[in-house]
């Protein structure tokens, strides 16, 4: 499928996904746990949203932030499900360039938004523990809505240029991507052009969003720990942070590892970045509702009450 434009020859008009190399014979079996993970993620996050929306006693900052996290996780699951299940279930490996660029926009913007939500949740815990008397006056509903909107706009605005930055390239190299979905750092390597601008911009966005957010989350927990060690009910205070810390570690650890491997790694085996990629996109939406349901007594009681009825 050779296309000639301005005397420059394109070898490919599509990208090809990579599943798990060497395991092609058992793709249908591999699709079963992937499908199960998606079902649990979608049902779990939907239940969290339903419980918080229908129970007025949960209309407080901590649970509003949790509902924001659930919406973001649902978005991530929906953005990656068609291509991942398409590869393993239907053995469909092709994606058009425009569809790929659209998917990378949604994946990266939703990841930036999730990072922002985790930062807001850290701020919520910081105020609740370090300045409890001003908690309700600082975290008012209008302020939460405005802050959430600002962070959503930040994620969308910073990621918006990425599809256009990769769309301007001519793709005349091997068109096989490293994953079963499109990422900017993966797609730009397929271009037969200088990708310095993409590299610098992509790294800058990652540092300004996830890098800055993770640093602020770390600083907030330093302050929380300092406050907790000076009060008597330290165990109870720290218990409210455990679920958030789990969510932070689940999200940032594979994300940072994958970013480092893509930009600086020279691994001889393609398996580590592939597996880390699946962990970074599938595990947070799967684990967040489980962790919060287990660790939050109020939420757990209400979920049990709904299903017992």
TrEMBL record:
GO terms for cellular component: plasma membrane. It is a multi-pass membrane protein. Keywords: Cell membrane, G-protein coupled receptor, Membrane, Olfaction, Receptor, Sensory transduction, Transducer, Transmembrane, Transmembrane helix. One of its GO terms (molecular function) is G protein-coupled receptor activity. It comes from the Eukaryota. One of its GO terms (biological process) is cellular response to lipid. Its main location: membrane. Residues 44-292 form the G-protein coupled receptors family 1 profile domain. PROSITE patterns: G_PROTEIN_RECEP_F1_1 (PS00237), G_PROTEIN_RECEP_F1_2 (PS50262). The chain crosses the membrane at residues 26-52, 64-89, 101-123, 144-166, 200-225, 237-254, 274-294. It is found in: Cell membrane; Membrane. Belongs to the G-protein coupled receptor 1 family. PANTHER family: OLFACTORY RECEPTOR, OLFACTORY RECEPTOR 56B1-RELATED. This is Olfactory receptor. It comes from Terrapene triunguis.
